[in-house]
Structure formats: structure tokens, C-alpha cells
Write a structure and sequence with these properties.
alpha/beta; Isopropylmalate Dehydrogenase; 2 domains; ten-stranded mixed β-sheet; two-stranded antiparallel ribbon; 13 helices; 12 strands; 42% helix; globular; binds 3-isopropylmalic acid; binds manganese (II) ion
Length: 353
Amino acid sequence: MNLNIAVLPGDGIGPEISRAGIGVLDAIASRFNHTFSYTTGLVGAAAIDATGDPFPEETYRICCDADAVFFSAVGDLRFDNNPEAKVRPEQGLLAMRKKLGLYANVRPVETFNCLLYLSPLRKELVENADFVCIRELTGGMYFGEKREGADEAIDTCVYTRGEVERILRVAFDYASRRRKRLTVVDKANVLATSRLWRHIGQEMAKEYPDVTTDFMYVDNAAMRMVQEPRFFDVMVTENTFGDILTDEASVISGSMGLLPSASLGEKTPVFEPIHGSWPQAAGKNIANPLAQILSAAMLLDHFGLSTEARKVREAVDASLEQYVRTPDIQPEGKPFYGTIEVGRWIADYILNF
Ligand code: IPM
Ligand code: MN
């Protein structure tokens, strides 16, 4: 298969994990006779520095012309510490989501048996937890009208029937292909938008008689996720709730550095880790590249290359089992491997085993 991939390394540890991810994609291409070509674009603080715009038109064009976008991270301390900044790196990510129509963000939460000890939750609770959080990504408060004054500020949360139906459709389809349980997470006891979600969810549930659909308030879902993570199979929710719940979900598997995601929608799909740019670690060769590498596996799956995706996951499992790990997940007493070394080890495994 020929794939033209737009690579957006972004800021902080982004470029390092991006290189590790591409090394893995190259290994897959070589082992399975595919041709992957890459075009790099600027995004985030790197793009602001070069052009003044966190998602320049040229980057948008590169994304539109590609089959997939391989995104890493944006964010920079210079902007975090300056609330007055007129443009922020994060706006690049939001602009990309909006312009590419990436309304469905798919965040799988899986546990690795050999990393269970890293989870702050008890092993017997998190063992075999395996669910997918589907987050609406182009609506809600993130994109509603805003007003910001010195004494009053307003964020608006708007959802239309069309927006709700298309994301619920993605979620019902996922649930149908998995363990057939869908949890629609909302705050319908308080919010009008949530009541619209719930109403549409109840209507659509009739089209999926083999899926067990529950409706759960977001506060309750946040609690249930740490009390009984195995309850969930597919969870679907609006943008802001999804942002919060997926950070919470990431601790289940023990490290944020492990969770990949796919953002799907109207144009080119984007594959990216859920973690941020960790500027303090930039250039130190200590960042965990696994979320980025597992995002490459999601990319391969998206194009029907499931044997290839499985090979990537097998290589990641092998690296963990053989303690080829970055400091965040390496037990005391074992030597640390760098971002480069972990990436190279996984690429070599793919080429040789
Ligand atoms: C995420 C991030 C982004 C979000 C930030 C960087 C704007 O936290 O992808 O979850 O809030 O969506
Ligand atoms: Mn987030």
C-alpha cells in the first residue's frame, strides 16, 4: 500500500516521539512491502515562531493532501506562563480539529499486564480493563461563542441534532463490533445539551437492539471509572466531559505515556498520543514514545493493515516484557532506555521477528 503521511511533530517532546513513531512505520513498510512517504508541517509554538499562526495554511494543505496525519504534541512554557498571549499553541490543535472536521476522537484504554503495578488503583480492579472512550471533538464549549470581559466571561455550549447523531453513530458502531455495551455520558439532570444527547441516544438505541445502552451522569461516570473500570466497553460523551474523563482514564493503565488516539471525521484522519508536549523533557531523550508508536498502530488499523498493526503491538509488548523502557515506566534498579533506544528496539523487533 502507498500512504502519504503528513507529519506534525509540534513542540516539546513532540519531535523526538515523532521520530520514534516514524522509525516504526518505516520498519513496517520495509517488512511488509509498503511505501510510506512523509511530508512534515509546522504546528503549535513551532509554527507561531515561524509564521505567527499555530496552524498555518500550508500545514492545512499538507494535511488535506495526505492520507493520514501523524501528530505529536503542542504546547510551550512561554505561552503557559503568559495568560496575555494573543495566540497560543493549543489553538493550532483546535484549528486542525475544526478545519479537518475531526468530530470523533477515539481513545482506547487498555492495560498491560506487566505494568499493572504502576496504576494507582489496585491490580485486581484494573486487570483486563479494556474500554474505548469516544469523545466529540468539534463542538460544545470548546467551539461555542465566547465573551471575555474583566468582570464577566461566557462560554456557550451548543450541540445540534446532526452533530449528536453522527458521533453517537460512531459509538454505536464501535459497541456493535466490541462487547456490545454503550454508555452515553451526560449531565441531563442539569444541562439542556445533555438532554438533547440523551433524547437522541434513546431514539438511536432502538436501531441497535443487540447493544446494551446505558445513560450515566458524568459525575457518576467519573466515579465508576475508578471504582469499576471493567464495567465500561464503549463510552461516548461531549467534548469537555471527554477531555476530563480521558485524562482520568489514562491513570488506569499506569502512565499517560501509553495512550494513543485517532481523530476521525470529514477529511484526513489524525493519529496522535493523548499526552501533551512535556516541554521540561524536550531534547533529553527521556520521553516515552509508546503512545506515539501505538498511534501508528491505530493508523495502520484504520487502513485495514491489521497484521501490521498487530506486529507493532506485539513489538511494544515485547519491549515492555524485556524491560526496554523509558524512566517513567521502568522499575527501580533496572537501567533506563532513552526515547531513541526504545524506538529503535521496537523497529528492530518488527524487522527481525
Ligand atoms: C487533549 C488536550 C487538548 C484538549 C488541549 C491541548 C487543547 O488536552 O487533546 O485532550 O483540551 O482537547
Ligand atoms: Mn486533554
